[in-house]
Amino acid sequence: RFEEDQARLRAAEQTAVRARAAISGAKAGAEVTQTGLQQVQVIAEQIASVDAQIDALAARREQQRLDLGRRQIVAAFDGVIDQTVVDPGEYVSPGSRILLYHDPHTVWVDVNVKETEFRKLKVGASAKVKVDAYPGRTFEAKVQRLGGAATSQFALLPNPNPSGNFTKVTQRLPVRLAITQQQNLLRPGMMAEVTIDATD
């Protein structure tokens, strides 16, 4: 639709140019007869009509340009697309998931630490991470965040314990480590082994 309006606008502009040239030719004659004056008047009316069409088409083109701008989706940060969940040409609504992507320069690993060891940790503590994909290689990391609740509090099927019997089970708390990326080797979802230095 946008391309069709562009073509109509160009055609209208060309018509206006030809009409103005015809008026100039008529006025340039040595003698202007009554018929010539009537022709000039008709051409002038045609020019006014074409100018109105040009203005309308230009306004429509500007509106379409604004509409196209609103349909551009800008990512919050530069990254790598991992998965797309819609096909080209498919209609989406606000809030729909379109794709999954990540920043390859910002990598972390989430670990669950026993509550008996949790008290030894603090934000900023050093850690070392090993991944199965690169045996023998170690990645440096630091504790970025300490969880505020045990992982059992977020279980999909919590145990209501209706019988009243209690079995003490050591709980685990989530800890996030920020890893120093090396040559973009690390990828989301890789399995890792973590060693945290609790003496820092």
TrEMBL record:
Biological processes annotated in GO: transmembrane transport
Predominant localisation class: other
InterPro entries: Beta-barrel_RND_2 (IPR058792), UPF0194_transport (IPR050465)
The keyword Transferase belongs to this UniProt entry's keyword annotation: no
Superkingdom per UniProt: Bacteria
Gene Ontology CC terms: cell envelope
Compartments, record wording: Cell envelope
Signal peptide as annotated in the record: none
Alphabetic keyword roster: Coiled coil
Entry's transmembrane regions: none
Limits of the CusB-like beta-barrel domain: 106-198
Protein name: Secretion protein HlyD
UniProt source species: Caulobacter vibrioides
Lineage: Bacteria, Pseudomonadati, Pseudomonadota, Alphaproteobacteria, Caulobacterales
